[in-house]
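Handout, section 3.2

Students often ask what a structure token actually looks like in practice. Rather than define it abstractly, here is a full record for Metallo-beta-lactamase domain-containing protein. The first block is the sequence as you would receive it.
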Amino acid sequence: MMNVRSYSLGPVQTNCYIVSNKEKECIVFDPGEEAERLIKTIRSNGLKPLAIFLTHAHFDHIGAVDAVREVFDVPVWIHEKEVSWLADPTKNGSSKYAALPDYRVAAPAQDTIIKKEQQFEISNFVFQAVFTPGHSPGSISYIFEKDGFAIVGDTLFEQGVGRTDLLGGSTKILLESIHNKLLTLPEDTIIYPGHGNYTTVGSEMETNPFLNGF
């Protein structure tokens, strides 16, 4: 049974998830900001990070990547379509906000670029990386089928869906991703979004106003 810790970080309260096992190993998803807080939390809980996985490369999901990667010496995984976004503020969106610094993150090595949907097996972490574009062209959802949850970034929210007015966004593609990749999961699957509260597939099927009539 995996333990999922959630931390709302940075100026727009982006959810970072730390998924850990009984052996105190962990995987960090979307370390968006507040690197010192994350590093302290990992150390104080006696956790050993094995990797960082990104749902997409908008600035609020990548701000602490370099610091966490350097301290724990772990690989960073990201969709191939958004590798160039990491160091480009015009693509990752940080250049749109004068109050924010330009977010520039070092690109991962070639062998940590996700080019196709695939299953990852890292220690006893087993999960699927499925492509759910629409919010951004390289958005990925990570589905822990055996453990009954999915980390979906800004694709699907409680009573909402991801915005599509940013670079490479598409409402049509987003809704197709949600219906074809997420709503096909068991209804009791927990959805961990990039912002806000967690929800379930069944709850969103029944009550999410953005999905009605698709």
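Discussion prompt for tutorial groups: The two ends are 35 Å apart (CA to CA). How would you have guessed this from the sequence alone?
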